[in-house]
Q: What sequence folds into this?
């Protein structure tokens, strides 16, 4: 099977071809916008909304990953599948705006997947969606937008963009169950300036209703995927073994210890465990035990009780501040989220150079180095975020 009117954008020649096609359409009063279209309901409704509002829409689908390369056992699904690409193409054909496919598998793989593997080998828990948004998708979109003379880019994220004293920042989306502000903390001022999030003021049921009203009944019922796109079977351990064939042998024979250093047994290798993990440890100790620390240098996994997971502070690095240029010298109070589904905890923030010291006002369990920490004001505005470097009790 081939994509209908397939157009891959590769190299200067293809860009010139794409620009020629795009320029056949007269510039609208709202401007030209490049819409990232995965073939799912959210990006489809995003393109439709902007088209209805009078923007000159150009659709673009990014091929980030070949499922066959993952070695997984399940059928290819999600944003990189043939069906999804064709779904995106169909909407563009129906509405009469151009659509292109870009191949970014090499840049995606080199950066996102290599980082994913490296972080687990360093004993940390990576956040690939944040990394992809920050360093791959937006960069790829903006470069193609410039090549196609697009003023703006748009995605189907449930978040809002606001401005404060000349600075752009993310704010939570209207739907608390779909808010995606957490994964967007890394976007720069230039990215935010040129980005549109039409779905930020809508709930998911409203978006499904819009899709149905526009004649996409089947799409409105399409199931969502919450898996990492390149680990579609949700088994990151098997993925690591496929990427590093001798990994299991290299890390075998490590030990579990308790928080006092007493040896409790042997494990399968430190990269196969994450902070807060209880199930799948393969060891019975007479009470629930959790991974509280991972020490890659000695292939050691520390186990403790739920109370021993508690942390009252952490250090956050690789900062990107959005609403403010920097945190005031006297510090500020904010709601800090340490994972995507985390409701957040009130905390005190104090910036020290290129890091932020976070002191929680209530004890927090499962602070995992490598994950993102995102700071919010009470009204849902994103102050900024960074990567968790370490925690303290």
A:
């Amino acid at each position: 099977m081939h994509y209908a009117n397939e157009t891959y954008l590769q190299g200067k020649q293809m860009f010139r071809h794409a620009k020629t096609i795009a320029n056949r359409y007269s510039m609208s009063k709202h401007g030209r916008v490049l819409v990232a279209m995965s073939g799912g309901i959210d990006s489809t409704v995003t393109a439709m909304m902007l088209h209805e509002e009078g923007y000159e829409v150009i659709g673009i689908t990014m091929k980030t990953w070949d499922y066959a390369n993952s070695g997984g056992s399940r059928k290819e699904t999600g944003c990189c599948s043939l069906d999804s690409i064709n779904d995106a193409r169909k909407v563009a054909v129906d509405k009469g705006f151009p659509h292109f496919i870009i191949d970014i598998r090499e840049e995606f793989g080199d950066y996102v997947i290599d980082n994913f593997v490296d972080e687990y080998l360093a004993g940390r828990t990576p956040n690939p969606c944040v990394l992809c948004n920050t360093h791959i998708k937006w960069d790829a979109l903006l470069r193609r937008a410039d090549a196609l003379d697009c003023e703006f880019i748009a995605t189907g994220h449930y978040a809002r963009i606001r401005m404060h004293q000349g600075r752009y920042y993310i704010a939570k989306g209207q739907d608390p169950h779909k808010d995606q502000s957490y994964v967007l903390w890394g976007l720069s001022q230039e990215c935010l300036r040129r980005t549109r999030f039409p779905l930020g003021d809508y709930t998911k049921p409203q978006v499904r209703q819009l899709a149905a009203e526009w004649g996409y009944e089947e799409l409105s019922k399409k199931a969502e995927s919450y898996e990492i796109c390149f680990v579609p079977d949700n088994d990151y351990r098997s993925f690591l073994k496929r990427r590093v064939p001798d990994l299991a042998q290299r890390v075998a024979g490590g030990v579990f210890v308790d928080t006092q250093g007493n040896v409790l047994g042997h494990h399968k290798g430190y990269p196969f465990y994450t902070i807060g993990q209880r199930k799948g440890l393969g060891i019975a100790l007479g009470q629930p035990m959790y991974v509280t620390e991972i020490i890659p240098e000695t292939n050691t996994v520390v186990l403790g009780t739920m109370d021993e997971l508690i942390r009252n502070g952490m250090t956050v690095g690789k900062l990107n501040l959005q609403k403010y240029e920097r945190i005031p010298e006297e510090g500020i109070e904010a709601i800090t989220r340490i994972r995507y589904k985390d409701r957040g905890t009130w905390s005190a923030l104090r910036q020290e150079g290129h890091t932020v010291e976070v002191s929680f006002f209530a004890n927090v369990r499962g602070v995992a180095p490598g994950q993102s920490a995102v700071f919010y004001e009470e009204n849902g505005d994103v102050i900024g975020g960074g990567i968790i470097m370490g925690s303290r009790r």
